[in-house]
Amino acid sequence: MPPMPGTGSAHRASGAFDANGAEMGPYRGTVQRAEQDRAEILRLVSSLPANDHSLVEGVVPATEALYQRIQLLAQATAADERSSAPEALAQIEAQIVELEAQANPLDVRNSEDRVRRLALLKRQRRGVADVSRRHDDARAKLDSCVLALQNMRLDILRLRAGTVANASSHITQLTERARSLAEEVDAAVYGADSARSPGGARGTT
Prior knowledge:
Blueprint: H1 8-16, H2 28-47, H3 59-83, H4 88-101, H5 108-161, H6 167-196
Helix pairs in contact: 1-3, 2-3, 2-5, 3-5, 3-6, 4-5, 5-6
């Protein structure tokens, strides 16, 4: 199995984040539970009989990748929520409606100023909407990563207990799903980082 994807952002997650840190905001409990799932998976894998190790070859890197992305997504989502202003979009919309109601083609001087202000407000509206979409996407990916890690722990338990004949097949599917999720998260984080950079197209100025 090829190595799990790992970007600079994911590597930062492995060493720079604290599951108990304030930067996790309301997702601190989510990260702590993921940390417990990770520890349990690693413990279960190490306790498997030697002849079962080949069945879980990709589990440890998949587990680490998911845990790193959970930390990264939790911090990013919490940061977006701290910096967001729920009333901002409504205020911008109200100003746009007000300016559009003032339209007067006979008042050329004020009309030009109104058009400039409308263009600025509409760019700001797009920027606020982009932040909201980015937050919703990160939250959905966070939930998916958490669920994938939980499912992996359950299937390792089943494999260890011998209660499911095709548990190894489930585990293979889960590790592939973990790879896919990690790649999706890395792509989303790269896009968000690009949008936040000075050269990024945020459309809010």
